[in-house]
Amino acid sequence: MNTKGVELIAARVLEEAVEKAATLVKDAAIKAAILPKDAAEKAANLSKDAAEKAANLSKDAAEKAAILPKDAAEKAANLVKNATVKAALLPKDAAKKATLLLKEAAEKAALLPKGATEKAALLLNEAAAKAVFILKEESESLTAKKNKFLDLAAHELRNPIASISLLLQVIEKQIEKGQPLDMKILARLRAPTDRLASLVVDLLDMSGLERGMFIPVLAPTNIASLISECIEEFQILAPARSFIFHKPDQQIVLNIDPLRLSQVLANLLDNAIKYTNTGAIEVTLVDMSNMIRFSVTDHGAGISKEKQAELFTAFSRGSSDITVMPSGLGLGLSICRAIIDLHGGRIGVESVEGKGSTFYIELPKENLKV
Fold first, then answer.
1. Quick one: which of 297, 335, 304 has its CA closest to 318?
2. Furthest-apart CA atoms within the chain: distance in Å
């Protein structure tokens, strides 16, 4: 706000006070006119006292108005002078009201130094500009992630569907020619069908998580047995790989959702196989004082610090020198984190580039005890 603006505000504040005081003067004059002689003399004495008080207030108001620009101060002085003259005519009650009005006007004027309003306007403009910029960046980021996911989903879903379609065409031709069905071709249908089912399950799980419909079904479960069963399944799927399971001698039974915990462990084992092609995959179960911890360790290329921070967010996919194009929608680890969160635990990763990775899960024994 410029100097002229400050002048106008100060003048308006003081002028309002004068107008109110003038109204009070008029009312007081009318009332005084009907008073007996003795009352009139008393009113004159009260007016004298009111004038002295108004004079003191005028002095204070003038001093405060001195911080205003020169022209505004002069205008304020004139307004105060006029208000003082009128206030001298007021009886005691009206003088009090006029005193309050003058004091209020002076205080408001004192709050309007020259640069304050200009600085406030600049700060508001800067804050608005920053808010617009941040919202724009977030919107662009979300749009980019959405487009990336849609492209990825289309690619990942198209591949198994194309494979299934091609194999079905081969089977149709064999049937048309009266040839017996080739069991090898039927077996080849299994992989793309399972792949397609897995992608759809991931999408449904993520949708359920976002809508708060992902509810664990808890049951007393032997953790070591659950892990052993999962390892056995992957040993069949990847017979060339070696799996080592380190577990304590005593049983560990917790109240968990066995289906969902198996899903988490399967995802970690699948990633260990996918991103490494040599070396044993180690699974370790440790019974700690207040929690259990199980982990999956590979001896592959490892993960950089930058990528570790993004691994458990939706649509994030790892990469290494071993796998040229990792498959999947990038939802696996984010779903795993949500499942572990629902159990009151936490999931994390420890990795050094060139030395492999360890994905670990920690579950509290107190919250999940049977």
1. 304
2. 133
Q: Kindly report whether the global pTM for this prediction surpasses the value 0.85.
A: no
| Higher-pLDDT residue of 206, 236 | 236
Structure token digits, residue 105? 């006007």
Contact 307, 327 (CB under 8 A): no
CA distance to 52, 262, 265, per residue, from 370 (Å): 86, 19, 21
Q: What are phi and psi of 207, to 5 degrees?
A: -65, -45
What DSSP designation does 369 have? B
Which spans in 66-115 are helix H? Answer: 70-87, 92-110
Q: Looking at residue 112, what is its pLDDT?
A: 54
Distances from the Cα of 75 to the Cα of 69, 70, 341, angstroms: 10, 9, 69
Q: At residue 361, does pLDDT exceed 70?
A: yes
Instruction: Give the chain's domains with CATH numbers.
Output: 3-114 (no CATH), 118-210 (1.10.287), 219-368 (3.30.565.10)
The sign one gets for the Cα dihedral 124, 127, 133, 139 is negative
